[in-house]
Amino acid sequence: MNNFTGRSRNDDDNDISVALDREEIEINCLEQEDERETEKIELKNNSNSHHFTNDDGAGSTDNNTARMGNAGVRKQLSVFMCCGQNKVKADTKNGKQAIAKDLEKKPAFTGIGLVYALLASFLFSVVALLAKKIEGVHSVEISLIRCFFQMVFVLPAIIYNKIGFLGPRDQRIFLFLRGFLGANAMILLFYAVQQMPLADATVIMFSNPVFTAILAWIFLKEKCTIWDFVFTIFTLTGVILIARPPFLFGSRTEGIEGEYTNHMKGTIAAFAGAVGAACTFVVLRKMGKSVHYYLSVWYYAVIGFIECVIALFAIQEWSIPYCGGDRWLLILIGLLGVAGQAFLTKALQLEKAGPVALMRTMDVVFAFIFQFFFLNRAPTWWSFGGAFCVISSTSGIALRKWYINTRSG
């Protein structure tokens, strides 16, 4: 037995000791059973030999039978040991391959997914800031540039992975809705950023997780608890604090950018964009994993691009920026938007949705920082109060789902 162990370890110096010890125990147990069987045969042989001593040749025949039985047992044991040796090698090889795969899948450190989510939040906030800085360019045209770059970068991935451009026949209506609703939400976000303070528009758009829970309850029959309604009320309270309608707050409009009419237009656009984004998430949940991610983004980019072209010709707002710097800003919006989407996708692949959603609250923090340092506009206490209500609601939903998934997992 020791020779077998030595041979096994010399054949492969990197064998996994746990698997080898397990196989050795099994071989020892079976060897002991075979030895007990051999002893039984010998005892039976001795008994038969003693009983038939008066018969010529009977005792020698039984002894020969016993020896043949012992040889058969030894032969079976040696065959088993040989096969067991190969099995040990196979198991240790499979074990090493599994460990190698685990090491390949394991990120450099456990928080890399959250770092990706933080980078995505930063890039999306920069895109909103650039859209705010560009002058004389309609939000539809900004969305057109964003969709164009999205198509340019997604097209090679679709061709390389041989996904196809249309998708499953029974999912095409949902893909169309995903593209149409997502493009509208993007256009409304850029419009809201142009009409009201950057932080206020970001806060209202960030309320979409609350509306996602309500819409999923209505259309997908997902479970909705009293907490979801509490979070919805908190979110609506935050939106009201930011909008500050005159019938509740009177004529006090301090901290509002430009005319109050534009502020209300931006508020309505941001709120509608948040609902549109929530509808997009519900459609994505409906499709589930039956549609590849690249195909979903492809529909979003293509339908958004077509929609923006039609809208620009309809409203006659097509214009090329007068300043060369604004043209570079448009290109940066397209590139950074694609990079942010890539980081967000990678974050969701490495981390659970709950921690990623919590990290996405940094969108609001970056919006307040950018508004103060780059737009020279200090946020009001009303904006801080509204942001607190919205972030509390979205964080509460994310933490609750994270807790439920952890317990069920």
Features:
409 residues; mainly alpha; 16 helices; 0% strand; globular; EamA_dom; EmrE-like
| Mass-distribution shape | globular
- Structural class by helix and strand composition: mainly alpha
- The parts where pLDDT drops under 50 for at least 5 residues are 1-22, 46-90, 99-104
Secondary-structure element pattern, one letter each = HHHHHHHHHHHHHHHH
Identify the quaternary structure here: single chain
Protein name: Solute carrier family 35 member G1-like
Membrane topology: Multi-pass membrane protein
Transmembrane segments: 108-131, 143-161, 173-192, 198-219, 226-247, 267-285, 297-315, 327-345, 357-375, 381-399
Domain EamA: 112-243, 265-397
Brief synopsis:
With 409 residues, the protein is mainly alpha-helical. It has helices spanning 2-11, 17-51, 58-105, 112-133, 139-161, 172-195, 198-205, 208-219, 226-243, 246-249, 260-287, 293-315, 324-350, 353-359, 362-374, 381-408.
